[in-house]
Design a protein that fits this description.
By secondary structure, the chain is α+β, with helices and mostly antiparallel strands. It is 43% helix and 20% strand. It is globular and about 75 Å long. The structure holds zinc ion. The site of zinc ion has 6 residues, from helix 5 and helix 9.
Length: 469
């Protein structure tokens, strides 16, 4: 449904002089320029939005740790579907899948076609259900206004003639493959996720409209953006990079809401928090989050005591394009560019230097720079990575290096020695590198030299379980 501002009722100042001040106020609010709630120019079909979204969502699912709690998932999914069903403009063309990423960073994003991801941090930060509904409604706005493929359309038009693009997009097969071949970045820093300020204004307008129809106060959407920016500045960098604040965000959202009230009247019921919202918050509070695990493990490390020995029972980590077994008394921590599997107290900070001795294993990706893209070898790329590591570990020394076969994939094993941040000690690292599409995945198994042999059987068992996708 198209709810353009031209369809709003005209206010007649002449109706009654007594009412003039009231109407004048509203009339001024209307002057804030609100875009019509319909998608912009787009070369893709809604079906292609779904196809492209599905292909990208598969990569997101492989890369990010997803929350598995069925109760929280059901709640977010039910809430999301209910809100999406109230969205204007062809909402039934999309699949509407809602997932929760197990990260305490405050973030939410939507891929084309209705694949919506909400970080647990966003649920935890929402002070009431209306605020959570607001952020989900905003993401649904990006979906129905097709901002991802609208941006992709603009990027494609900048580099190829329209007729050629139409013939390419008309072919069958993997859409993301074809677009990547045309030089469009569809990875996790994808153009599909970068919203312009205009797209933000439109997603806010749709979000306010959905909230209004659902019976939540639309102002809650503006409130959510305000409180997270004010209260958690260190956890919102990605959120505001994907959803840049348009000027006067709060004023615009409130204007949308008052427009809705004029057009449709006040909603009959005002929704408060559901029992399920309170339950979901309670559940999350009982499931350790990755960053609170991090805080707990460094707090419990005590004065340089070694962590407890690795358990022989193994769990499976799945994400970042790999799956690997790890001792069930270890914890998973995720930072912006790495996943770390560590024993409790496995990161021992040395206050004098700010450095830390770690036990455990880290997984990260490395993009070879000096070698031309797509045409690099493992040995050269590993040497490049070692040079990067040497910048912060000048005494890093290669003890031994040999080729490794990981379930049919060739890999390189490099044993390293370096100074430990613990005074007078050395650290030993086993670096395993393998190619993973355009990246090199690097796994570093870490222990103080004196402990390395004790950890070696655990490291070997982990390596044997490793699967790269
Ligand atoms: Zn946004």
């Amino acid at each position: 449904m198209n709810r353009g501002r031209r369809r709003r009722p005209h206010v007649k100042l002449s109706a009654s002089m007594a009412l003039a001040p009231f109407f004048l106020v509203l009339g001024m609010a209307w002057d804030v320029d609100t875009p019509d709630l319909k998608p912009g120019f787009n070369l893709f079909s809604p079906q292609q939005d779904v196809q492209l979204g599905k292909e990208s969502a598969e990569e997101v699912d492989r890369t990010y740790p997803l929350l598995a709690d069925p109760q929280v998932l059901r709640y977010v999914s039910d809430l999301g579907r209910q809100l999406a069903s109230l969205a204007p403009s062809n909402n039934s063309a999309y699949v509407w899948t809602f997932k929760v990423i197990d990260s305490s960073d405050i973030n939410a994003f939507a891929l084309p076609g209705g694949y919506v991801y909400v970080n647990r941090g966003a649920i935890e930060a929402a002070e009431n259900e209306a605020q959570l509904a607001g952020v989900i409604a905003h993401e649904s706005g990006h979906v129905v206004m097709r901002h991802g493929t609208h941006e992709a359309t603009a990027a494609l038009l900048a580099q190829a003639p329209l007729a050629l693009l139409e013939s390419i997009l008309g072919r069958s097969g993997s859409l993301s493959g074809q677009l990547t071949a045309m030089g469009l970045n569809l990875g996790l820093n994808s153009i599909l996720l970068k919203n312009s300020r205009d797209a933000e204004i439109q997603a806010d307008a749709v979000g306010a409209y959905i909230l209004y129809r659902a019976g939540y106060p639309p102002h809650a959407l503006a409130e959510f953006f305000e409180i997270v920016e004010r209260k958690y500045p260190q956890k919102t960098a990605q959120f505001f990079s994907d959803h840049p604040n348009p000027e006067d965000r709060v004023k615009r959202i409130d204007t949308e809401a008052s427009g809705d009230i004029l057009l449709y009247g006040r909603p009959e019921k005002r929704k408060g928090d559901s029992l399920e919202f309170a339950d979901a918050k309670k559940r999350l509070a009982s499931i350790p989050s990755l960053s609170s695990v991090e805080a707990a493990s460094s707090a419990s490390s005590g004065p340089m005591g070694p962590p407890p020995p690795p358990s022989s029972r193994l769990m499976k980590f799945d994400g970042y394009g790999i799956s690997i077994a790890y001792p069930d008394n270890w914890q998973v921590q995720r930072s912006e560019d790495a996943v770390v599997l560590v024993p409790p107290g496995g990161i021992i900070e040395v206050p004098e230097t700010g450095a830390a001795q770690a036990y455990g294993m880290s997984i990260s990706r490395f993009q070879p720079q000096r070698l031309s893209q797509g045409n690099w070898g493992l040995v050269g790329a590993t040497a490049e990575l070692l040079n990067v590591l040497r910048a912060s570990n000048p005494n890093l020394r290669v003890i031994e290096q040999h080729a490794l076969n990981l379930k049919g994939r060739s890999a390189l094993s490099t044993l390293l020695e370096t100074d430990s941040p613990l005074p007078g000690q050395k650290e030993r690292d086993l670096l395993v590198t393998a190619r993973q599409s355009d990246f090199m995945v690097s796994l570093i198994f870490i222990a103080p030299q004196s402990q390395f042999d004790a950890y070696k059987p655990t490291f070997d068992a982990m390596l044997q379980s490793l699967e790269l996708r």
